[in-house]
């Protein structure tokens, strides 16, 4: 086995975090306080005999019948394109939107540095994305697209000024 729940638990203990182990499901449940996520639960799950580590934040949103669901999907895809680590997911049965990160360990042990990067990335990128998705669900407009379009327009203006 490449990594064990005990090793992951030690990493969390060194961070001073509380957590609950579910050895029968090969996972640990913990959480963080957040201004963007009401109940920011984090599940750390070992799969494939400890050769794959997955961290996910379940139940962030439910958008099954939301009027701006299409724009929310576009935003989740745009965020996935903009960042290299975080995955946005969607459960069509109930409309749940979680986020996740993962790493294939194969026969290598998980290092504390790798774990901390995955955990920090999951938290930070989920919070950023949730702020943006909340705006989308409230207005139907993606503020990230407006920012990108403004940046592109400013760059074009600078280029045309250089050409003159």
Estimated helix fraction:
40-55%
Give the rounded overall mean pLDDT: 91
Content of β-strand: 15-25%
Structural class: alpha+beta
User: Helix segment count?
Assistant: 4
Strand order of the largest sheet: 1-2-3-4-6-5
Computed over alpha carbons, the radius of gyration is: 19 Å
Q: Tell me the span between the first and last alpha carbons.
A: 64 Å
Number of strands: 6
Shape: globular
Q: SSE string, helix = H, strand = E?
A: HEEEEHEEHH
Uncertain segments: none
Largest sheet: 6 strands, antiparallel
Present the secondary structure layout.
Elements: H1 5-14, E1 20-22, E2 27-32, E3 40-47, E4 52-62, H2 69-82, E5 87-88, E6 96-104, H3 112-139, H4 143-163
Antiparallel strand pairs: 1-2, 2-3, 3-4, 4-6, 5-6
Helix pairs in contact: 2-3
